[in-house]
Design a protein that fits this description.
The chain is rod-shaped. The N terminus is likely disordered. The chain is mainly α. The protein is 79% helix and 0% strand. α1 runs antiparallel to α2. The chain has 2 helices and no strands. It has a domain of 59 residues.
Amino acid sequence: MASHSDNPHDKANDIPTELADLVEAIRKLPAETRNQVETALERVVDNTRRRRRILTLVQDALSQLRLDMKYLMFDLEATRRERDDYRRQLEEAS
């Protein structure tokens, strides 16, 4: 697992505790056994990190979408009020 970092706990906050525990347990295995599973473990850790980044991006995008929707709803209501005011003014002028 040395391709990204010698210590998989450098980014311990971006992988689940269970996975970090598994990484640590595998690091303690004999070299021959460790070499057999290290590549697969590295892929799992990388995929977990990628999924977490994607999840964060999606959550941020949803938050922005919610905010945009609030602004749009506010704008729509203001536009409707303005329309109704103009209609009343037009009816009063007639």
